[in-house]
């Protein structure tokens, strides 16, 4: 009887909290609005997180939503002086700014609507958009791993993710149309979640909805990432993931693979009875990437080990044989690396894999080949005062070749290679290749283009610049590893060399700077902070850079370790 009484009170308590969902929704919306616009909070006089934690516990199911708004605003200075803020910026990206949640909400009183509109009209203006500062609420060791966060902290973290999307994420308008409903359902789960692991699953789902490759690494800070993504055991083989199968590319532990009748080139079509398509659908709900191609590339990383569906040391895999295309089910033993010899074997394999990848390059007398993640070697032994002359000599020689190739499959290891030196030698003075939208400090949640007069974003200011137009063939190689600055540099190269042919696969679709928002309890959210477009305003976020020739790899191409892009280029010069 005693247990039944306790259970009854727990159920009553949960139902009361759940009944406060509407109040929490308005609380979160209002708090974020005040955080980014009210002079007291946006100006730093009142600390936003502290206000949230001090008031959220006072929200109850008996309050109407107008009382919730009063609760947050009652201790702020709401007597605004000065004139209404105006913004005369041109070409403002304002599609994300949406105040319908209060302006068209019949439950919100005319008094509160007037108050919120007044806050916006007298909003805080900063020299630059203010970033969240780390607070005591964001200490990593504030809560132990197995400790479920208090409801107030769960709501705070969730609110800050929503606020980041609403006010700081320029590509909110590209998110799925059902995002509002999706986040409303997640709020239900935040309120009711029984454990830290369950809460981290909710966080992963929230961030994944951004569909932004810059936010991909969010999963890596989750305390329960190994359990959520089932990373405790690693396969005895390497693989590449397609949309409907996993291709086995290398046998790292041949003896285990032989026992399971697994061969290089075989396909895995199911994991523990679940199709690969279904597995990927479930994983994609937890991982933020800008497009499917980048998602598959990230999931194919052996070291990340994100594709598996349980924590068992043995997994049941449905396999299609490369030899005779027959399918069979095999129970495969996985590795957990407690054995140092097993770990050493995998480490050596990974080193060899990286070495093989780095060895892909073109050495041809008629081709000048540049690799974006290996460009710094061009100047690493050159004194600073001699760099300009040294790079001029390299490009003079490159200009004598029939072809130049820029391999952009990687992240730049030297920011000055394209931005400064390629521009300095080859480009016209005015190099209009893209549009870079920055947060608008006069109106948070909107974005304004950086003028081409603002040197340092599009091209450097070089006195007495000379131009050396190149008339030969130019190829630019891209794939999912062409991310952020590499995408920006690719756009730059496409403009400098209008004859360039861009080949490869869809790029990461996440260009621009990264902003970091400190959430709470040690969690941080990174995501794309700028809107990047081609000069004609065409989209790059999610879409990636423009590609002239898409090159697709078959299973055999991958197994044979072919580089189809380099092969395509070499054929063109014969």
The helical percent reads 25-40%
Largest sheet: 6 strands, antiparallel
- Could you tell me the mean pLDDT? 92
Shape: flat
Helix/strand-derived category reads: alpha/beta
The whole-angstrom Rg is: 27 Å
Q: Any low-confidence stretches, pLDDT <50, length ≥5?
A: 2-18
Q: Whole-Å distance between the termini?
A: 87 Å
Number of helices: 20
Query: How many extended strands?
Result: 16
Which band does the percent of strand residues land in?
A: 5-15%
Essential attributes:
alpha/beta; 16 strands; 574 residues; five-stranded parallel sheet; six-stranded antiparallel sheet; 37% helix
Notes on the protein architecture:
This protein has helices at 2-18, 21-37, 39-42, 48-55, 65-73, 100-103, 110-121, 151-168, 179-192, 196-208, 225-228, 254-259, 276-284, 292-299, 340-358, 387-399, 416-426, 485-496, 555-559, 564-572; strands at residues 237-241, 246-251, 267-271, 274-275, 314-320, 327-333, 367-371, 403-407, 434-439, 447-449, 473-478, 501-504, 514-518, 524-528, 531-534, 549-550. The protein has 574 residues and is an alpha/beta fold. Strands 1, 2, 3, 4, 5 and 6 form a six-stranded antiparallel sheet that branches. Helix 2 (21-37) packs parallel to helix 5 (65-73) and helix 2 (21-37) crosses helix 8 (151-168). The radius of gyration is 27 Å and the shape is flat.
């Amino acid at each position: 009887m005693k247990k039944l009484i306790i259970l009854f009170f727990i159920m009553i308590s949960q139902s009361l909290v759940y009944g406060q969902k509407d109040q929490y929704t308005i609380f979160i919306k209002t708090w974020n609005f005040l955080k980014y616009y009210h002079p007291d909070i946006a100006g730093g006089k009142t600390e936003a997180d502290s206000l949230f934690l001090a008031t959220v516990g006072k929200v109850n199911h008996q309050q109407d939503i107008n009382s919730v708004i009063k609760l947050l605003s009652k201790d702020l200075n709401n007597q605004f002086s000065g004139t209404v803020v105006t913004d005369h910026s041109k070409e403002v990206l304002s599609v994300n700014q949406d105040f319908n949640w209060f302006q068209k909400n019949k439950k919100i009183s005319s008094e509160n609507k007037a108050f919120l509109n007044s806050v916006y009209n007298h909003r805080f203006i900063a020299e630059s958009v203010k970033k969240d500062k780390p607070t005591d609420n964001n200490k990593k060791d504030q809560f132990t791993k197995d400790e479920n966060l208090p409801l107030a902290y769960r709501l705070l973290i969730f609110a800050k993710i929503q606020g980041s999307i609403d006010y700081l994420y320029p590509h909110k308008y590209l998110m799925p149309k059902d995002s509002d409903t999706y986040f409303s359902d997640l709020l239900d789960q935040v309120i009711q979640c029984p454990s830290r692991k369950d809460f981290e699953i909710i966080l992963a789902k929230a961030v994944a909805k951004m569909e932004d490759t810059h936010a991909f690494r969010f999963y890596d800070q989750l305390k329960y990432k190994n359990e959520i993504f089932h990373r405790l055991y690693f396969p005895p083989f390497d693989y590449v993931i397609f949309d409907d199968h996993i291709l086995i590319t290398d046998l790292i532990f041949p003896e285990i693979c032989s026992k399971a009748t697994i061969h290089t080139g075989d396909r895995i079509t199911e994991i523990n009875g679940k199709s690969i398509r279904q597995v990927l659908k479930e994983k994609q709900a937890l991982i933020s990437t800008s497009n499917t191609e980048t998602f598959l590339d990230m999931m194919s990383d052996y070291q990340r080990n994100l594709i598996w569906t349980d924590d068992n040391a043995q997994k049941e895999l449905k396999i299609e044989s490369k030899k005779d295309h027959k399918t069979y089910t095999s129970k495969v033993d996985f590795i957990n690396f407690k054995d140092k010899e097993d770990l050493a074997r995998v480490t050596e394999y990974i080193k060899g894999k990286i070495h093989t990848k780095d060895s892909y390059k073109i050495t041809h007398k008629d081709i000048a080949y540049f690799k974006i993640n290996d460009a710094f070697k061009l100047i690493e032994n050159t004194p600073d005062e001699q760099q300009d002359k040294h790079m001029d000599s390299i490009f003079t020689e490159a200009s004598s070749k029939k072809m130049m190739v820029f391999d952009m499959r990687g992240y730049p290891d030297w920011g000055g290679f394209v931005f400064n030196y390629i521009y300095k030698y080859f480009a016209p003075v005015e190099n209009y290749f893209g549009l870079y939208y920055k947060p608008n400090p006069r109106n948070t949640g909107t974005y304004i283009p950086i003028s081409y007069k603002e040197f340092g974003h599009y091209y450097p200011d070089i006195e007495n610049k000379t131009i050396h137009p190149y008339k030969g063939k130019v190829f630019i190689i891209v794939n999912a590893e062409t991310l952020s600055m590499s995408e920006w540099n690719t756009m730059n190269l496409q403009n400098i060399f209008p004859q360039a042919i861009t080949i490869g696969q869809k790029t990461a679709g996440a260009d621009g700077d990264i902003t970091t928002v400190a959430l709470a309890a040690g969690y941080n959210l990174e995501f794309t902070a700028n809107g990047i477009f081609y000069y004609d305003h065409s989209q790059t976020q999610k879409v990636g850079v423009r590609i002239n020739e898409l090159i697709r790899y078959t299973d055999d191409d991958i197994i044979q370790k072919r580089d189809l892009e380099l092969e395509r280029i070499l054929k063109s010069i014969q």
